[in-house]
Amino acid sequence: MRADSKVTVVVVTRDRLRTLQRSLPRHRGPVILVDNGSTDGTAGFVRRHHPHVQVVENGRNLGAPARNLGVRLARTPYVAFADDDSWWAPGALERAAWLFDAHPRLAVLGARVLVGPEERLDPVSEEMRRSPLGVAADLPGPSVLGFLACGAVVRGDAFLEAGGFDDVVFFFGEEERLALDLAARGWGLAYADDVVAHHHPSPPRDPAARQALAVRNALLTAVLRRPWPVVARRSLDALRQGRAGRRGLLDALPRLRRALARREALPPEVERARKALDRYNL
Questions:
Q1: Which residues lie closer than 8 Å to 265 by C-beta, 6 or more apart?
Q2: pTM exceeds cut of 0.70
Q3: How far apart are CA 149 and CA 147, in angstroms?
């Protein structure tokens, strides 16, 4: 199998047809578009103008778990995620496939994400590049315990084995729990500076709501996998963030029961690595 046919691009969208019109033609190889209940004619437009793209209509917004559907449908061993405002640089996915073939423990490859027309390095990519976890002998770059979904390539069977993205967190910050669960199963996650994705996001329409969502999901992820002192610390940090932090805490309450039902302790070595990252990011 050629490297350029080993990776399927899975794009998730919802009511962003105009943005999708700019990004979709840039994708190469097999492409699966998962539509999260759009009402702007996205599915029909893509079927007419991009007949090579496989379109999946959910009929409702499934959040980040919509990507799981794309991974299940992919007929390639590796899957690259993209948002409707992102795409992969020429040659990036061929390079990613080569790295996966050469490193059988690798489950997630975090890319160098360049933001906007000025191609600024995304802060998360900078954090991954400078990860204090070192470089394992059987991985192609710095070990990480997080990633940006729109700049990540995954090994499909490992992704599904770890449950994919979950409906407790739902959307925004959904990567952390999955990263922890992959590491708990012995899989490796690494950053590769020579695998490049482009991201042209629109400015957030409601920054306070976005901050509240980040607080909610960070707390829920801690409840799902981290020790109780970490949960308490994240709760206190949220209270210090003012109105948006308090809103995030309140928004977490309706999902708390499901998070508690799915709570699992991480293996000690994974928790130690996560704590090392916590200290590094203070």
A1: 225, 227, 271
A2: yes
A3: 6
d(CA 106, CA 88): 19
Chain length of the chain: 282
Indicate the helix (H) or strand (E) that contains 10.
Answer: strand 7-13
- With H, G, I as helix, E, B as strand and everything else as coil, classify residue 174: coil
Q: Which residue has the tokens 């590796």?
A: 78
Q: Which helix (H) or strand (E) holds 232?
A: helix 228-239
Q: What is the pLDDT of residues 23-51, one digit of tens each?
A: 999 998 899 999 999 999 999 999 999 99
Q: Say what the alpha-carbon torsion angle 139, 96, 64, 183 is, to the nearest 10 degrees.
A: -10
CB 113 within 8 A of CB 42: no
Between CA 88 and CA 81, with CA 69 as vertex, the angle to 5 degrees is 15
**pLDDT tens, residue by residue, 222-262:** 999 999 999 999 999 999 999 999 999 999 999 999 999 99
33 by DSSP, 3-state: which? strand
**Residue 77's closest CA among 52, 48, 106?**
106
What does each C-alpha distance from 164 to 37, 66, 78, 167, 169 come to in angstroms? 20, 10, 14, 10, 12
- Give me the chain's average pLDDT, please: 96
Instruction: Please return the burial class of 35, using the count of CB atoms within 10 Å of its CB with bins 0-12, 13-18 and 19+.
Output: buried
Q: Please name the residues in contact with 85: beta carbons below 8 A apart, sequence gap of 6 or more.
A: 16, 19, 23, 150, 199, 200, 201, 202
For the chain, give me the number of helices (H) and strands (E)?
Answer: 11, 9
Place of tokens 């002192």: 229
Alpha-carbon span 236 to 249, nearest angstrom: 10
Residue written as tokens 């405002």? 85
